[in-house]
């Protein structure tokens, strides 16, 4: 198993219980669907769909939606949600760097805080555009590195294992200039917008405890540092400091970036 394959196998475990956060991230889903211009007859692919919050939101508008995610536990939850909502979404266990769909199959390709975790941005974006028809829209949400969630992931990266050689940090996708650089000559009419999520909590420590009990890299590191109290304390202190800058009136503000562009006609 090469370094990238090993990284992806670890990611499946890291994000396997992300369903605990779906109602929270689901609040951002309509914003991306609206920003992308999803219509009732659109053929939509939700990449790194998680438990399907964007796919389900798009499908409720009448769009024909397909979802794909690397983590089998999340696809299982997405199918449960699909059944609960009485929708007809086709969910697949799939890697954004190797999508199992034909060329030019979709009118719109979306990703909410997901594709950014693919280790090779050039491979991921090539695949997302391959399955998008000429003139179709690619749109995604990401976390700016200078704001809370960007800081949060950078702190996690500092304490976690290093990325393999050739892998890019996920928060790079939160930079307007980086997005322009990666998508230049591939799309036109590239536009951006910003919005925010707000997480309720009773204190900075309460918010951090929710992250620790929720899902993702912080939960895994807290488990890993159980026998290293000094390292765990240092990690928690840095997380608390980052939270405190964006915590007010029992709400943690999390700003995110949205980007969209149209694939060039060939």
How much β-strand is present in the residues?
15-25%
Runs with pLDDT <50, length 5+?
A: none
Total beta strands: 8
Mean pLDDT: 94
Tally of helical runs:
11
Number of domains: 1
Could you state the CATH homologous superfamily?
Vaccinia Virus protein VP39
What is Rg? 18 Å
Q: Any idea what the CATH architecture is?
A: 3-Layer(aba) Sandwich
Helix content range of the residues, please? 40-55%
Spatial shape: globular
Distance between the termini: 37 Å
Order of helices and strands: HHHEHEHEEHEHHEHHHEE
Looking at the structure, the CATH topology is Rossmann fold
Reported for the largest beta sheet, the result is: 8 strands, mixed
What is the CATH C level class, in words? Alpha Beta
Descriptive overview:
There is one protein chain. Helix content is 41%, strand content 23%. By secondary structure, the protein is an alpha/beta fold. The protein has one domain: Rossmann fold (3-Layer(aba) Sandwich). Strands 1, 2, 3, 4, 5, 6, 7 and 8 form an eight-stranded mixed β-sheet that branches. β2, α5 and β3 form a beta-alpha-beta unit. α3 packs across α4 and α7 runs antiparallel to α11. The longest helix has 16 residues.
């Amino acid at each position: 198993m090469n370094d990238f394959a090993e990284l992806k196998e670890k990611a499946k475990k890291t994000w396997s219980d992300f369903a605990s956060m779906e109602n929270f991230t689901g609040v951002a889903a309509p914003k991306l669907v609206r920003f992308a211009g999803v219509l009732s007859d659109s053929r939509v692919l939700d990449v790194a769909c998680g438990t399907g919050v964007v796919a389900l939101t798009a499908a409720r508008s009448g769009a024909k939606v397909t979802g794909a995610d690397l983590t089998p536990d999340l696809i299982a939850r997405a199918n449960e949600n699909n059944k609960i909502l009485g929708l007809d979404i086709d969910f697949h266990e799939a890697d954004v760097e190797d999508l199992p769909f034909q060329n030019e199959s979709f009118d719109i390709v979306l990703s909410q805080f997901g594709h950014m975790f693919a280790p090779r941005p050039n491979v991921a974006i090539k695949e997302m555009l391959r399955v998008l028809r000429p003139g179709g829209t690619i749109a995604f949400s990401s976390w700016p590195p200078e704001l809370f969630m960007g800081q949060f992931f950078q702190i996690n990266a500092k304490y976690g294992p290093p990325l393999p050689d050739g892998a890019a940090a996920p928060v790079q996708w939160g930079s307007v200039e980086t997005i322009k650089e990666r998508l230049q000559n591939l799309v036109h009419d590239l536009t951006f917008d910003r919005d925010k999520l707000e997480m309720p909590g009773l204190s900075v420590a309460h918010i951090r405890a929710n992250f620790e009990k929720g899902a993702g890299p912080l939960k895994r590191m807290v488990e890993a540092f159980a026998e290293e109290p000094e390292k765990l304390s240092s990690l928690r202190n840095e997380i608390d400091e980052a939270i405190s800058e964006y915590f007010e009136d029992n709400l943690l503000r999390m700003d995110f970036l949205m980007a969209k562009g149209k694939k060039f006609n060939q």
